[in-house]
């Protein structure tokens, strides 16, 4: 029995645009937020997620529908994000306020008092700054686990690494963040 993605892929491979549009609708939001977490800029995240869909569209006939679509899609998206970061040579100071604002708006927070809001913004900004300083493999794990909510098993499948490696990377990423944020955690 085929799942929804497999059916949409088969239809897309036959040239049915409505099927491909359904795939785009299903995955456009996760693609944007994953990209945003990895590159830290709304405009770039939007462009990269769109580019991923273009690449999927141009290569859909080569894809084996028996494989997991999202894993293939994530690999393409992640590689685009890595290449973007390399091209821009931005590893440390590319975080912008719109990332913090997107995270706060996405969480559905109600208006807070100005002093609490300022403190929260400062903490969020500092957290994002420290996340951007992490090596890509640690940043990727943090984004997938904590901002996208994927399970260890799903991350393992997406990155094609053992589950133990996922847990190890996550442990080291969290430890590094905790060490780097100890001044505001006290």
Structure description:
This protein has 186 residues and is mostly helical. It has a domain at 1-90: Orthogonal Bundle (Rna Polymerase Sigma Factor, Chain: A), CATH 1.10.1740.10. It has helices at 4-13, 17-39, 42-59, 69-88, 97-106, 114-133, 136-147, 152-159, 163-180, 182-185. It is elongated and about 60 Å long. The termini are far apart. Residues 90-111 have low confidence and may be disordered.
Summary of the model, kept short:
This protein is mainly alpha-helical and 186 residues long.
List the helices and strands and how they pair.
Layout: H1 4-13, H2 17-39, H3 42-59, H4 69-88, H5 97-106, H6 114-133, H7 136-147, H8 152-159, H9 163-180, H10 182-185
Task: Identify the overall geometry.
Answer: elongated
Distance between the termini: 53 Å
Name the quaternary structure.
single chain
Number of strands: 0
Rg for CA atoms = 18 Å
> What would CATH call the homologous superfamily of the domain at 1-90?
RNA polymerase sigma factor, region 2, helix turn helix motif
Largest sheet: none
| Count of discrete alpha- or pi-helical segments spanning 4 or more residues | 10
How confident is the prediction overall: mean pLDDT?
A: 83
Quote the beta fraction: under 5%
**Which residues form runs of ≥5 with pLDDT under 50?**
90-111
Please write the CATH class name of the domain at 1-90. Answer: Mainly Alpha
So, CATH architecture of the domain at 1-90? Answer: Orthogonal Bundle
* Class computed from helices, strands and strand pairing: mainly alpha
Give the helix level as a range of percent: over 70%
CATH topology of the domain at 1-90: Rna Polymerase Sigma Factor, Chain: A
H and E string:
HHHHHHHHHH
């Amino acid at each position: 029995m085929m799942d929804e993605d497999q059916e949409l892929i088969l239809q897309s491979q036959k040239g049915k645009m409505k099927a491909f549009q359904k795939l785009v609708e299903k995955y456009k939001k996760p693609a944007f937020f994953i990209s945003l977490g990895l590159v830290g800029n709304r405009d770039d995240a939007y462009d990269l997620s769109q580019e991923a869909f273009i690449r999927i569209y141009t290569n859909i006939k080569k894809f084996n529908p028996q494989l997991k679509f999202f894993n293939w899609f994530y690999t393409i998206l992640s590689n685009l994000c890595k290449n973007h970061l390399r091209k821009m040579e931005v590893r440390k100071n590319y975080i912008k306020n719109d990332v913090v604002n997107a995270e706060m708006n996405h969480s559905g927070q109600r208006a807070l008092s100005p002093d609490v809001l300022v403190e929260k913004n400062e903490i969020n900004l500092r957290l994002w700054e420290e996340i951007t300083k992490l090596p890509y493999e640690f940043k990727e794990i943090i984004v997938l686990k904590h901002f996208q909510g994927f399970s260890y098993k799903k991350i393992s499948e997406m990155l094609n690494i053992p589950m133990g490696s996922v847990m190890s990377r996550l442990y080291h990423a969290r430890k590094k963040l905790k060490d780097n944020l100890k001044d505001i955690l006290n």
